[in-house]
């Protein structure tokens, strides 16, 4: 008996694959947040986040 149907696990695999393609952007965003983690606020590192988001969106579309 399987815990989840295959269609449920595919999005997770696609997200994992996208994450490997966007490791550079993820690293840059992470470093930006950690640089001053005591003062995290809305829109902090917004430019870095948008680059990471765009990378994920492109990676997810290419794997569809």
Task: Indicate the topology.
Elements: H1 6-21, H2 23-35, H3 46-62
Helix pairs in contact: 1-3, 2-3
Organism: Ceratocystis fimbriata CBS 114723
Protein name: IMS import disulfide relay-system CHCH-CHCH-like Cx9C domain-containing protein
GO biological process, one term: mitochondrial respiratory chain complex I assembly
Written account of the structure:
There is one protein chain. This protein is mostly helical and 64 residues long. It has one domain (9-62). It has 3 helices and no strands. It has helices at 6-21, 23-35, 46-62. The protein is elongated. One of its GO terms (cellular component) is mitochondrion. This is IMS import disulfide relay-system CHCH-CHCH-like Cx9C domain-containing protein. One of its GO terms (biological process) is mitochondrial respiratory chain complex I assembly.
Give keywords.
mainly alpha; NDUFAF8; 3 helices; 72% helix; 64 residues; IMS import disulfide relay-system CHCH-CHCH-like Cx9C domain-containing protein
Give a short summary of the structure.
With 64 residues, the protein is mainly α. Helix content is 72%, strand content 0%.
Q: Work out the helicity level.
A: over 70%
Class derived from helix and strand content: mainly alpha
What is the terminal-to-terminal distance? Answer: 27 Å
Largest sheet: none
Count of domains = 1
- Structure annotation, total helices: 3
Organism: Ceratocystis fimbriata CBS 114723
GO cellular component, one term: mitochondrion
InterPro entries: NDUFAF8
Protein name: IMS import disulfide relay-system CHCH-CHCH-like Cx9C domain-containing protein
